[in-house]
Amino acid sequence: MSLQDHIATLEALQTQLGVVRQVPPTLLQKGSDGAERGAVRAIGEAVLSEPVQAALARARESLETDGPGAQRVNRKRRRAGTPEEYVDARAAAPARRPEDAVPLAELGAWGTAWNAAHATAALRIRGRVVRIALADVLTAYLGIGVAADGAVVVETVRVFGAREAGLGESAFGVFRAVSQQLGRGLAGGAGLAAVAGHVVAYGDLFEGPCTVCGRVVAAEGHVPCVVRRWDGAGWRAEHAGCGR
Ligand SMILES: [Zn+2]
Q1: CA 38 to ligand 1 centroid distance, Å
Q2: ∠ CA 219-234-108 to the nearest 5 degrees?
Q3: ipTM of the complex model
Q4: How many whole angstroms from 142 Cα to the centroid of ligand 1?
């Protein structure tokens, strides 16, 4: 099983536990054999099941290997075009650099060049949706529009697991969290090239250690690094709870 599968398994278990937490304890004590008791039994069986045990074993292994104070620096810096202005836009007043702009008329040619430059990502344009697939990691759907100056801007971002259908929103919290992170930069009319670069930075979502705590999976919540922070030279992976 991949780390992604392990995380999905633990998330599913967490959802089940959430359901039972809402059941009043008195119902469980009175010996009723209703749906609530069934839910508790199902969780017991789920915890003992092979996928959950494998996921827990891997989490324990990761904890022992990394140790609580481990510090590792992610040296896999990814160059991502020209993100400075895009990153500034996330913090304050939005501004797109003219050289980042992808005119609508040149969108097809830009996509072809982008695919040629990215070996591990595939970009496809269908109408007003740009789909970026990072093999075995995630698929991002960027809803695009056109700014007053004719440049393509990203209006919405939805991220799904590589094997998900891409309807509605992802069933997995980790991909919903990545959607949220990517969505934070869109308010000012983010340029397509900058957002595509940010998406590509998630290529090591399930293996990139946090540049703050050094772990791949956070000690709390079993979630990988869903934050990618631009530090002037590359995108730094961070857990949502580890950054500033
Ligand atoms: Zn961390």
Answers
A1: 37
A2: 115
A3: 0.99
A4: 27
Task: Kindly give the distance from the C-alpha atom of residue 110 to the centroid of ligand 1, in angstroms, as a whole number.
Answer: 35
Handedness of CA 23, 26, 27, 32 (dihedral sign): positive
Residue 62 region by backbone torsions, left for phi larger than 0, else alpha for psi between -120 and 50, else beta: alpha
In angstroms, the CA 176 to CA 146 distance is 25
Structure tokens at 63: 């904890």
- The closest alpha carbon to 206, from 141, 162, 156, 158, belongs to 162
Distance from Cα 157 to the centre of ligand 1, integer Å? 24
pLDDT per position as a tens digit, 57-107 = 777 677 666 655 544 444 333 333 456 666 655 543 334 455 568 999 999
CA 51 to chain centre: 22
- Summarised one tens digit per residue, pLDDT across range 130-172 is 999 999 999 999 999 999 888 999 999 999 999 999 889 999 9
52 CA to centre of ligand 1 in angstroms = 23
What is d(CA 138, CA 124) in angstroms, rounded to the nearest whole number? 14
